User: What shape does this take?
Amino acid sequence: MIIESILPTNENFKKLNGHYKAQDLLPMINSELKILEERQQVKYLNLYTPFVDSQGLLKEEFSWNGVHLTLAGYQQWVKVIKEDGT
Assistant: This one.
């Protein structure tokens, strides 16, 4: 079983305002998901780090509305999976 981290969002797009509320909690939630890797013997895939910018937001080139991914976003996702060997 593979558990993937939660992707960041980017409120600067101002398109899906109700979807940005948990942004500040994502690092903590992802940290808890990582703990499951050891406790539950599952594989944790960190997608957050490759998608987050220096301000903690989803990189603009990977989204068209701050939540959903563009083709470049999905290509990045595939790249992360391949690099991880998952």
Observations:
- The mean pLDDT is 90.
- The chain has three helices and two strands.
- Helices lie at 26-39, 48-51, 71-84.
- The radius of gyration is 13 Å.
